[in-house]
Amino acid sequence: ETEQHHCEGCGVRIQTEDESRPGYAPSSALKREHIVCKRCYRIRHYNDIAPVDQDPDVYLQKLQEIAHTDSLVVLVVDIFDLAGSWIQGIHRHIGNNPLLLLANKIDLFPKSVKWGRLKDWVRATAKELGVDPIEIALTSAAKGEYFRQTVEAIEHHRKGRDVYIIGVTNVGKSTFVNRLLKEFGEEEEYITTSPYPGTTLDSIYIPLEDGKAIIDTPGIVRKDRMSEWVTPKELQIVMPQSGIKPKVFQLNEQQTLFFGGLVRFDFLEGEKQSFVTYLSNRLYIHRTKLEKADEIQTKHRGSILTPPEDPAQLPKWRKHRIQLNGKEKQDIVIAGLGWIACGQDRAVIDVWAPEGVQVGIRPAII
Ligand code: GDP
Q1: 231 in a domain, yes or no?
Q2: Residue ranges lining ligand 1, Cβ < 6 Å
Q3: Is residue 227 part of a domain?
Q4: Is residue 233 part of a domain?
Q5: Which of 194, 295, 284 has the alpha carbon at shortest distance from 241?
Q6: Host domain of residue 6
Q7: Å from CA of 18 to ligand 1 middle
Q8: Cα–Cα distance between 252 and 223 in angstroms, integer?
């Protein structure tokens, strides 16, 4: 067997020798019309996912190649998790190629949000990171909102060139590419989508009519997001799937919120004030007094306070002391989880999150 096959689900090169390595398929699978690797087969048919170890260098190398091409680069970000969506040093990787920023998952935001303001915020955040997009396209790959406009923007800026689609894992890159395939030609959904890091293992080439191509690159894993540390089953709870319903908590000082058992929020000092959580609707939030919090944590983390089912699988909690200045409204952001919109009052808060998970503050976006 000398012919090379690639998995139609994730693009990885098919091999028949080692079941523990990416791209394994039994030799019988090579006779099928549509060849997928064992991993994609399992994801599709059993919703069962085997994580594959990624070598970050390989992915960065693939990105680096883009700098030597003449192309349009589409960076897909999750607008609900912008902090967790950036690729470090991206301006270096893409060279002089223009970048279109595709801000996905807008369906998660309340319908009342001011899109113009949100777009300004995305642009300002991009600028801070040294990126100056030629356009910001807000869209929902899952629901199709503004999908046409987004495709038109890509076509407009492509100017006869190849299109590279890049992004970190779980921003909805595969969902977007699948919608492209569905709307423009291909009948079946081939690319494997899954709420788990690293589903697409190799670049996938989608030929365009003018001889150019859309190149869907593998998602880059960022371990500083909460979403990277839960099991695939728990990710269904942690990662919002449909419109977020913000929850308002009127808290007195010395009160605590637990977000499942993933993050603990201690309101230490300040006037009574409201905190609004923008988190997956499915995540259980437990409210208690600070003086009781340690005991509850010891007794119930992993049972009532879940996910995680097994706290030992997470890095140890690290404390982030946050001082709200009382001047402007601010959000406390936990990458890969969501954010807490705070009021305009002064407050001192401790956020406990697994070591390595990014916690920060920003001016309020809603
Ligand atoms: P990839 O790793 O970037 O290729 O991400 P996927 O396309 O596999 O999607 C990751 C998760 O995000 C899946 O659970 C999708 O259902 C979900 N998702 C993708 N696009 C959207 C969207 O526009 N809105 C919402 N709410 N969820 C989305």
Answers
A1: no
A2: 104-105, 107-108, 140-143, 167, 169-175, 193-195, 199-200, 219, 241
A3: no
A4: no
A5: 194
A6: 1-50
A7: 30
A8: 34
